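Q: Could you write out the predicted structure for this multi-component system? I'm mainly interested in how the pieces pack against one another.
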Amino acid sequence: MIKGKVAELLVSTQYLQEVQVKGWVRSFRSNRFIALNDGSTINNLQCVIDFEKTPEDLLKRITVGAAIKVTGTLHESLGSGQKVEIQATSVEILGDADPEEVKLTILSPKRHSLEKLREQAHLRVRTNTFGAVMRVRSKLSYAVHSYFQQNNFHYVNTPIITGSDAEGAGEMFKVTSFDLKDVPKNEDGSVNYKEDFFGKETNLTVSGQLEGETYALGLGQIYTFGPTFRAENSNTSRHLAEFWMIEPEVAFCDLDGNMDLAEEFIKYVLKYVLDNCKDDLAFLEERLVGEDKSKPESERSPMTLIDKLRFVVDNNFKRVSYTEAIEILKNSKPNKKKKFNYIIEDWGADLQSEHERYLVEKHFKCPVILFDYPADIKAFYMRLNEDGKTVRAMDILFPGIGEIVGGSQREERLDVLKKKMAELGIDEEELWWYLDTRKFGTCVHSGFGLGFERLVQFTTGMSNIRDVIAFPRTPLNAEF
Amino acid sequence: MIKGKVAELLVSTQYLQEVQVKGWVRSFRSNRFIALNDGSTINNLQCVIDFEKTPEDLLKRITVGAAIKVTGTLHESLGSGQKVEIQATSVEILGDADPEEVKLTILSPKRHSLEKLREQAHLRVRTNTFGAVMRVRSKLSYAVHSYFQQNNFHYVNTPIITGSDAEGAGEMFKVTSFDLKDVPKNEDGSVNYKEDFFGKETNLTVSGQLEGETYALGLGQIYTFGPTFRAENSNTSRHLAEFWMIEPEVAFCDLDGNMDLAEEFIKYVLKYVLDNCKDDLAFLEERLVGEDKSKPESERSPMTLIDKLRFVVDNNFKRVSYTEAIEILKNSKPNKKKKFNYIIEDWGADLQSEHERYLVEKHFKCPVILFDYPADIKAFYMRLNEDGKTVRAMDILFPGIGEIVGGSQREERLDVLKKKMAELGIDEEELWWYLDTRKFGTCVHSGFGLGFERLVQFTTGMSNIRDVIAFPRTPLNAEF
């Protein structure tokens, strides 16, 4: 007897063999046709039972959500939409699902809103949409590791709990073992961190970059892929308080090399899911077409999901300096007609999402890499250009998503770095170890950060970032 | 001109070709022989310079730790220990390393203690030992992902910040956005968590298992691989406050299947590093031989590092019930002679590290899987056996390490689970979502947790767990 997963049996040609499969009932029609799914694929396996030979009390327990074991023979299917089916000789109920209780959940067979599904995040992975999204997410993760490992990058786990808050990438969560009801204080009323678990103030990391740099300057080329955190009160479809970030860092690599790396990397991982997630992507594409129908035409996607992914894989990203971009924006229709919320007037302006989307979606109509930003709007560790006013930063902008990658060549010159830190009031004592890397064999090096959930959003076409991570953390929401 | 990494050039046979390589000086002998390393391998590339043609001020700057670019021709090496060398035509200093400053760091060419190296965790990856450990760690990580992905497991990122503290696996860190100097209180003096970022009390996860189960019961087979936390004041060589854990979870799988999975998985990842980290393992094996020489004979490793790894890969793990193990321990010499700190008297005793090590290292002399533990000493979610007093738990014990895996078949029966939770005072309201999985198509399922750093310890032979993670977090230590 062949014991198999649904995914395996669906492509099997071992007709007339006895098979056994376990899974959950997705639907049961006419007391005859069970659609069985076990999570191995978006597709269900049809199991046909002979209801005349099946006891009535068993038939009643074959309900949506129930776990069952089906034994039978594999047959070429005469129905449309599937190649094989099982003609069941026996069905065993492994775990019931009371239809009255199922009715109260998102497992009930009707259309539920994405908001409703979020409230039952522990069950939503049993729906077609979330099964597909989470399988694609998993494959994307593997593609990330595969790309870097095949290219001899070393994976580094930078710390999650950090005593350093110098990066200034945003508000941080505090980590403590104190009883919050009764926090130990010093005589002057300040918190006595000496009594805390780590003996100092600690936070959740916002980025592993600085630690990653210390490793790149020893191992040559490294990447991180781990959770990062922002305690920002942003209730948007693009922000999470807890998200996964990918941060490669490469010694002896300048900004051009960094752009090449980012572009090649993104193309590799998208190609990987195009090749390995065909059924899930086809489903998600269909879903998006359906979703689009309810939108005004101007907001519909100009390309289907798979075409969009192929387009990114097959085309060069457009590389444009910040200065060029400002010129394009200044002369653009929405700027002249004052349709932008923020009108671009002068060089030095920080670009808003509306500007980034104009450049990508209207002007260039392809992914864009903007580089050489004004120093004043970028972080302290980015390398100053000879012009003294721009830094070797780059952002990659994607259609529908906006910024998906932010990176830079790092300031490798100790004196320039120290001067910049002094200007911004960053304590050298705090970052003594970071400065050490510039003292002992410093070199040109570069890296970038890619928010993994934004990549999953782009790949799956899900419009809300809360729908591409298993249990999203957002302001006022840490359920499960 | 061939631009290459040290690892590539060392195996190149393109003799007499012009090559260029960048890296850091590991040593410089006789004003002639530079040992160059770029992190791509444990091995250095010898670059031979003609000091008569090299300006003196350049010679002076070729110091340990400096970053340099060497151009020259590739030659078959006449010296021992290397196949090729570069006869340099030019050396360029990319980043100096002032010898006076280097003297104060662990980069200085002498033997430093592992404790000293820990204080300079940002530099220690430039040493042979830590370069090797971190490369092996990276490859092990990839082997973990490869094993599960090749076996159609889906990677799930369970939440790091959690509102649930029901697992009771130990003390948890609190996560908050409150100003700890001034925590908002209710009228009764309790903390007003409604004002906190998530509107409730939140902690850092100790395990992704419960959330992982919800996903396994939809996707079939999943795994997590992410950071977990314990706020325990354990200053030992086996404990970290922040460590990475691997947790697979499989629907329709019982404890026997779980043991098979764990054993096959561990053998796969060890085999992978044996095949892919030969040079690093050879170095680490040598290191261990050296370390052993300073130990009394009774404490030395009975096997070399690579033999030990091969032994695990090639032999079956011994499967022994808790009840059998207790009999063996009760009748053992150290128990009879009262050499154990905890004498085993009765069935039901919790095994200590000394007992586990006796079973593995003295009695069976191979990895051991203990199963069917007394219910009273195990967690609430483990499946109760028909005897009413043992649960379907398993621990895998490794030589030198002790427990490396803890797993179980999960209690899939709603009524039994609820009864157990009531006995232990675990709030059903708190775990409503976990109980839901037992209401809607519950099924036999199993999983385990493997502490990744313990696996890295075993694989590299490092005796302190702080030496197998980039920036260890332990009580009073969150530097970097």
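A: Regarding packing and overall arrangement: The mean pLDDT of chain B is 95.
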